[in-house]
Structures are given as C-alpha cells and as structure tokens.
Predict the structure.
Amino acid sequence: MTQIRTVGIAGAGTMGTGIAIVAARAGFTTKVFDTREQSLERARAQTEAFLRKSAERGKLSPDAVPEILARWQGTTRLEDLADCDIVIEAVFEELGVKHALFASLDALCDEHTLFASNTSTISITEIAGGSGRADRFVGMHFCLPAQVMKLIEMSPGLNTSTATFERAWQFAEALGQKPVKTQDTPGFILNYFLIPFNNDAIRLVEQGVAEPAEIDKAIKTALGYPMGPLELLDLIGLDTQRLLCEAMHGLTHEPRAACPPLVRRMIAAGWLGKKAGKGFHTYNDTRVFGA
C-alpha cells in the first residue's frame, strides 16, 4: 500500500481552501489546482491569514506558519497534480464538471493515485463511474469549515475496493480528522438534515417571520449551535446553496430541499454571502472563517 505523502486539491473555493489548510497543517505536501489565478491568490491569502490568527490564539506555533505555507503550492496546471498520491475534488456540484475533471486526472495520474470527491449531494458511484478508476474512488465529505470542524463523511461507491476505503480512512485519520462511514445515499448524514433545515430558515426570512440576525440568535441560543443557519449559508455561499438544493431535490424530490425563490433573487443581486461582502448579513471583510 503506497503511503500518501502528496495531496492534490482540485478547486480553490471555500471548501478547497479549507481542505488544503487541513492537509498542509497535517504535514502533507499540498497542491491546490484552480483554473483561475485569482482564486489561488485569494486561497493563499486566506490560508495565511487563518494560520497567523491561529498562532495569535495559541492554537499553532508561530514557527509552524512558514513551514505550513511552504508545503502549500498553487497551480493553474492540472498536470502538476500528476504526482499526487490522492486528489480530492472540491468543484461545483455538477456531475458533468466532475466527470470531465476526473477523466483528465485519470490520464495524468499514476495507477496508485486515489481519487476522492468532497461532494455533499451527488452519488459517489455516479461520479466514480466517469473517473476511469471506480475501484480507487471514495467520497470524503469534509464538514464546513474544514479547517475548524473535524468530521469527514467517508462514503464508498459500489465499486470502491476495500483496500481503497481503508487507505482513505487511514489518510483521514492522519489529517487529524474524525471519519465516519456513510452509505452512498443523497446528502449522506449531514446534508440529509442540513439542506432542508437551512431552507426552512430562508423561508422564515421570505415570510417575514423574523430578521436573519434574530433567527440566527434564536437557533444559537436555544440549540447551542456555534453558528446560525443564515450565517452558515453566507459562509457556504448562496450560489453553492442553490446547486446543493438542485442536486438534493433532483435526487429525493423532498419539497423542503427545493431551492427557495429568495436564494435566486439574492444571487441575481450579487448577494452571495461573505465572499461578496453581503448575503443575509453584511461583512466588512471576506476573510476565511476563523481568520
């Protein structure tokens, strides 16, 4: 069994940035791919800000910051992921996009390279079916924000080999995360509950029941959540929430999973959440969570 030393991350958005922080912090050489140089620059800046804030809070040695950053490499060339031992995909929740990415990676990467998807709604078996190596494919759904939360939902596809799943599980533990095994079902554990729950919060805003700040305060105070649902949606991004809803609703036809009209109006207005400076709340900065 080949030891995992070099990790590839495909996608430098909110999830990809968080996963890359986790991998580099755990001692792995980490290569972050994105087609847009601007996204890589933003991910690098957010990573540095998060690490420095972690050091200020005493959660990380100040000397560790430059060492972790030295293990973080950004690239717009997919070819640079060819020598990775595992590649984790964190791109749009669209099956065609994922299939195209993995087909290209399959032609580049060595046979020992594992493929993983951070999808939270799409079937692992379906994604693996277009990867060229369905037996070496596994679902690894990191909990947002990955650099703070420890959970990873580990989901084997129908063709995932036992050796692949065991190797991926050991890697998850080496990252310092806490893996749980789930079956390849829509939403796995978290999003089966979370997508309808977040949509319910959005509909409370639509119906004028309460302001976003009051809804978040109520949930945090009564249920003990560290973050309210509308704060979380701003972090996820309203554009991402729309994709999650469309994927989940398309698979389950659960009415509560359908995308609320308010989300589409907010996207049209450019109110995408924290990354845009405005969503359900207004932000003075767009730094990554925890920074």
Notes: The chain has two domains: 6-181, 191-276. The mean pLDDT is 94. The two ends are 37 Å apart (CA to CA). Residues 19 and 237 are 17 Å apart (CA to CA).
